[in-house]
Structures are given as structure tokens and as C-alpha cells.
């Protein structure tokens, strides 16, 4: 597995590189946001480990820029432990978030879990395109369009949308969504579902696409736009 590590602290980078190489992963290391954006586009890694406190730009901006053109899974590694930082990172396109300091065994497990979910989404995708009003979902290519225009989603955002689209109009409970989309190895809370729903609504261009059912969960609606 090819990993792009974006970390400006040499000691942290060295420790992570050693741990990942011991887990038979190949690591490319950059120490600033500009190089991270370039490396993501040119080396096409399997996954990105992204620090937020970079010397030239905020890691959340790096995440947002990469996500505009790429669906490479991103795990944020940051000393920022506030809930707002987690939520913003997820809204900008991160697939997971770990607070420093962290254990290498957990990091490796998170990497493999995110990679496994991404691969499963690709391998189980069907060749048919599901059309719901102006929304089309191609599970084979993981392409989403609204009114013929491409909508760029993170792997987790796509998984969430595809799951809700399995039965449009049906209500899906938060815990069931966590189990099916994030699987039982997820260490976070159901608030991450809300963050991904908010990001999906914004990208789809209409809040009505995903309806919140108070005290239960969410369902995919059908709109004209």
C-alpha cells in the first residue's frame, strides 16, 4: 500500500515512516501543503496521512483542494482535539481523524480499514447507473452527477450516498448507517454521520436531497434539482 505522509515535524514523520514500513507499506513523505497537493496529483497514492499544522497553509485547506479533484482516502493526524476541528476536517473531505499522540497499531488498523472500505466499494459496485430524478449514481465508476454535472465526493461520502440510495425514501437509523458504511471497527461517534450528510447536501446543491428524521436518522429524498 502506497502512503503519502504530510507531516512537518521530522521526529513524528520518522516514527510514522518506521511504523508503516514495518507494516509493509511504502511511504512518500512531504512536509508542506504545496508539496502535498502536488504529490497527491502526480504520485496517486493509495491513501494520504495529513497533518493540519503545516508551515505554509492549513491542512484543512490542503484536504479541501485535494478533494476537489481526487477521491484518494485521507486520514487526518492532528494535535487538534476539539470537536469542531474533527467536524471541519470531515466536511472538507477527510475519511477519518486521529488525535496525536496515537499508537502505531491503531494507525495501521485505521489505514487498513479505510483502504478496505474503499476497495469493497469498488469491487461490489454494479455496472448499472441508478437514476433518481436529476441525480445519477454510477456504482461501478463511483461517479455522481446532478443535472448532468459531475459532483466530486470523498469515498466515504459516496458510500453514504449509495447506501441511502439503496431504498430512496426509506429511513436509515444513524447506528445502522455507522455499521453499514463505517463498519463495526469505527472508533468515533454518530456525529460523523451528520458531518458527512452536511457535506453531501452542500455538494448535491439542495438540502432536500437528504432529509433528517428527528430522533431516528436520515432518508434520501427526490427533488427536481
TrEMBL record:
The keyword Signal belongs to this UniProt entry's keyword annotation: no
GO biological process, one term: regulation of DNA-templated transcription
Entry GO MF terms: phosphorelay response regulator activity; transcription cis-regulatory region binding
Every OmpR/PhoB-type domain range: 127-222
InterPro entries with a match to the protein in the record: CheY-like_superfamily, OmpR/PhoB-type_DNA-bd, Sig_transdc_resp-reg_C-effctor, Sig_transdc_resp-reg_receiver, WalR-like, WH-like_DNA-bd_sf
Domain (Response regulatory) ranges: 2-115
PROSITE patterns: OMPR_PHOB (PS51755), RESPONSE_REGULATORY (PS50110)
Swiss-Prot/TrEMBL keywords: DNA-binding, Phosphoprotein, Transcription, Transcription regulation, Two-component regulatory system
Keyword Disulfide bond applies: no
GO cellular component: cytosol; protein-DNA complex
Descriptive protein name: Unannotated protein
Organism, scientific name: freshwater metagenome
Lineage: unclassified sequences, metagenomes, ecological metagenomes
Amino acid at each position: 500500500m502506497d502512503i503519502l505522509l504530510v507531516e512537518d515535524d521530522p521526529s513524528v514523520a520518522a516514527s510514522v515512516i518506521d511504523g508503516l514500513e514495518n507494516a509493509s507499506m511504502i511511504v512518500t513523505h512531504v512536509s508542506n501543503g504545496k508539496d502535498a497537493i502536488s504529490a497527491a496529483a502526480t504520485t496517486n497514492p493509495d491513501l494520504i496521512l495529513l497533518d493540519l499544522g503545516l508551515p505554509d497553509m492549513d491542512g484543512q485547506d490542503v484536504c479541501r483542494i485535494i478533494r476537489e479533484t481526487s477521491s484518494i482516502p485521507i486520514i487526518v493526524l492532528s494535535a487538534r482535539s476539539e470537536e469542531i476541528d474533527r467536524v471541519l476536517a470531515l466536511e472538507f473531505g477527510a475519511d477519518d481523524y486521529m488525535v496525536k499522540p496515537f499508537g502505531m497499531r491503531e494507525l495501521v488498523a485505521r489505514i487498513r480499514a479505510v483502504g478496505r472500505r474503499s476497495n469493497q466499494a469498488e469491487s461490489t459496485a454494479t455496472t448499472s447507473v441508478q437514476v433518481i430524478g436529476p441525480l445519477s449514481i454510477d456504482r461501478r465508476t463511483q461517479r455522481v452527477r446532478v443535472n448532468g454535472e459531475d459532483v466530486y465526493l470523498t469515498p466515504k461520502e459516496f458510500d453514504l450516498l449509495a447506501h441511502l440510495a439503496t431504498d430512496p425514501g426509506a429511513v436509515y437509523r444513524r447506528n445502522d448507517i455507522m455499521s453499514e458504511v463505517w463498519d463495526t471497527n469505527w472508533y468515533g461517534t454518530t456525529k460523523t454521520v451528520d458531518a458527512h450528510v452536511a457535506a453531501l447536501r452542500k455538494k448535491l446543491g439542495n438540502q432536500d436531497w437528504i432529509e433528517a428524521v428527528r430522533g431516528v436518522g436520515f432518508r434520501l429524498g427526490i427533488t427536481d434539482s
